[in-house]
């Protein structure tokens, strides 16, 4: 059986997933169009937030997530070395009590083991490093990934060289399955593709009643997340990060959005204070985000976050000065373990990606390759399946389906209704 070597692929969403998948599919020779509703790529979550290239300790309760972090990290760094920024230090610390006075969620011993899953992990003394209220702290060789303009410029160049057709400012309103093809309906026209990939961050274009169709009964929440932006008054040659675990604790990460030799911009987030609300739809989250303003963030949220970070890093405000804030809505799985890898699946010829971490784009693209092969196998196979019954494309089931399904009516003068024997005896 021979498949077409070059497929026409439409991808919706110009964030990490959409852009990476577009490049991967171009490498295989497919014709790729990318649709993004905003005026440019990487203007949503991916352009603003995906900062840590996680090695694992951020997920001390989810071994599956830690395994997927390590599985994807090396491949990600090999694929995008220009975007990976190594740190002066990347500290994971174990806090004594979280913002609500709750104790840590994993034991100090379990946290130590999780940090030491990275062979480069070094134990540090929190107090001599200027930190307080910590049970333990570890320094890992965990890098960050570029965001903002630096990421956008990189991908625009790569997508241009690769010949990906970009449709910016182009909102996809509907994806329709046409059997062998799929149709993308945008605000400016219709496009037909062999394969369509929905990489909208699980925010739109999902099949109706998708929750009931999935193999696992997953819970999804759409969370309004903000980050407070600070400027480092004493920047070093390489950036740093400081992440307190595991629960409602603060997190300081660099914002590498330019090629400046020294990184001054940082964000402060918090396990509860900057995750402002959880909704059952993306739209409700967006509408709440629109209602936030500088006053609310500066007067209500910022003091809480600064109180929290200075509890662990007393001199934080001497070094980092507040600049502003940014926010977005992120779809997350509701799981006890805080599982955070991506989920990729196909329904009716359209492939959907539920985002995980940035490095998960590698595994999502690998899964998409397998799903595309399966779609092609089904479309071009000489065996068809209906309700578990298989037959060949040379079978009358396939070729003459209409004719063999057209049945004579009951009582009609037709051979299949003959009851000659009974009729003869009835007459005699
Ligand atoms: C506060 C926060 C911190 C995070 N920190 C990290 C971290 O440190 N490390 C990490 O690995 N991950 C992190 N993440 C997660 C990571 O950033 C995301 O999972 C990832 O960027 C999602 O990429 P995506 O391409 O799937 O989605 P997005 O970046 O959301 O891209 C989807 C795109 O689709 C477009 N779109 C939507 N609907 C349509 C439509 N109908 N038509 C056309 N276009 C459409 C949107 O405009 C958007 O550009 C963080 C997320 C948040 C919110």
Fold and architecture overview:
By secondary structure, the chain is α+β, with helices and mostly antiparallel strands. It folds into three domains: 1-85 and 145-217 and 339-381, 3-Layer(bba) Sandwich (FAD/NAD(P)-binding domain); 88-141 and 220-334, D-Amino Acid Oxidase, Chain A, domain 2, CATH 3.30.9.10; 384-427, no CATH class. It is built from 13 helices and 22 strands. It has helices spanning 16-27, 45-48, 63-79, 108-115, 148-162, 210-213, 282-290, 294-312, 316-319, 360-380, 396-399, 401-405, 420-427, and strands at 8-12, 31-35, 84-85, 89-95, 122-124, 134-139, 144-145, 165-167, 172-177, 182-186, 189-193, 195-198, 220-232, 240-245, 250-254, 265-270, 275-279, 320-333, 343-347, 350-354, 383-386, 389-392. Strands 4, 5, 6, 13, 14, 15, 16, 17 and 18 form a nine-stranded mixed sheet that branches. A hairpin with a 4-residue loop joins strand 14 (240-245) and strand 15 (250-254). Helix 1 crosses helix 10 and helix 3 packs across helix 10. The longest helix has 21 residues, at 360-380. The chain is elongated. The N and C termini lie far apart (62 Å). 39% of the residues are buried. The structure holds flavin-adenine dinucleotide (FAD). Flavin-adenine dinucleotide (FAD) is lined by residues 12-18, 35-38, 43-46, 49-52, 54, 171-172, 199-201, 203-205, 225, 227, 269, 328, 330, 353, 355, 357-359. This is FAD dependent oxidoreductase domain-containing protein. InterPro entries: FAD-dep_OxRdtase, FAD/NAD-bd_sf. Residues 9-327 form the FAD dependent oxidoreductase domain. It comes from Penicillium angulare. It holds the Pfam family DAO.
